[in-house]
Design brief:
Blueprint: E1 2-7, H1 12-27, E2 32-37, H2 50-67, H3 86-98, H4 103-117, H5 124-132, H6 138-145, H7 148-163, E3 171-176, E4 179-185, H8 190-202
Length: 203
């Protein structure tokens, strides 16, 4: 059995779901968790305006109230900040080429940096700095960030999202053989996830 975790590193509900993924890994140590990156805000090119900032802050407060995950509500991004997730997603693919066993830990590290430290994940220097906190080779990481192969890997994730009609983030599925079964679409508590997992195992 393999869990398929559809996630964006800059989706606040995915940050809220992060502890559930950690608990799931502990509950099913023999099962793998595959990260599939989603096209959330992947092609945004307009700087944030006040309306979007207020919406983002509203979402963050909802996630905090629901999950207890920490946030820095100052959100001190520059006025010209473009809420585009492509580089952060590419960095996860580039990181996994060197340290696939720590992919989830890197995802958590950049989520933590964005949501609790107001660090700009659209800045390559920020991503390189976080990656270097692991045993990563900087030159290869930077080269992979800009490679066509990394871009193709990311596009394959987006294709799978489309194929499986994944439109809410986070989404968690389980894969048995070639069959995908959706467990939750959007945020759910660990208890609710376990109910769905156990139902699927028993069916």
């Amino acid at each position: 059995m393999q869990f398929i975790y559809f996630v964006s590193p800059m989706c606040s509900w995915c940050w809220g779901f992060s502890p559930i993924i950690g608990k799931l890994k502990q509950a099913f140590p023999e099962s793998s968790i595959r990260i599939v990156l989603t096209p959330f805000r992947i092609d945004t090119h307009q700087p944030m305006d006040e309306t979007l900032r207020n919406y983002v802050m509203g979402q963050w407060r909802n996630v905090y109230k629901t999950t207890g995950q920490p946030f820095d509500f100052d959100f001190s991004m520059p006025d010209e900040f473009i809420y585009n997730t492509r580089l952060a997603c590419l960095s996860i693919k580039a990181f996994a080429k060197q340290l696939p066993s720590q992919e989830k830990e890197y995802l958590h590290a950049i989520q933590h940096a964005f949501y609790t430290e107001n660090r700009d994940l659209t800045d390559i220097n920020i991503l390189v700095g976080i990656a270097k906190s692991f045993s990563i080779k900087e030159k290869y990481f930077v080269d992979d960030l800009g490679s066509n192969e990394t871009l193709k890997q990311l596009e394959r994730d987006f294709d799978l999202c489309e194929q499986l009609a994944v439109q809410s983030y986070p989404t968690l599925m389980v894969k048995n053989d070639a069959c995908y079964t959706k467990l939750v679409s959007g945020y759910a508590s660990f208890e609710d996830v376990m109910v769905m997992v156990n139902t699927n195992i028993m069916s």
